[in-house]
Q: What sequence folds into this?
């Protein structure tokens, strides 16, 4: 529902999401966004919480993309036992 749009967009942004488009019609909103798969885990629960259980989502693979350097360094440090 459109009334939860701001909260949902904020959450997608916090997950490194990029909004492609937002369509609204009859009080409902459809958001098309690109979100890294690593950031999408647990999204169903969060979306239900943000929208009082009134929203749904679907996802499909779009492309591979190089990991930003700061995240690559963090993963490397963790895998080497340093974090």
A:
């Amino acid at each position: 529902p459109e009334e939860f749009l701001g909260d949902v967009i904020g959450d997608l942004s916090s997950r490194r999401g990029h909004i492609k488009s937002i369509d609204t019609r009859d009080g409902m909103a459809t958001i098309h966004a690109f979100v890294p798969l690593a950031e999408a885990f647990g999204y169903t629960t969060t979306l239900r919480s943000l929208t009082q259980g009134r929203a749904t989502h679907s996802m499909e693979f779009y492309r591979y993309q190089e990991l930003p350097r700061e995240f690559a360094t963090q993963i490397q440090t963790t895998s080497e036992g340093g974090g």
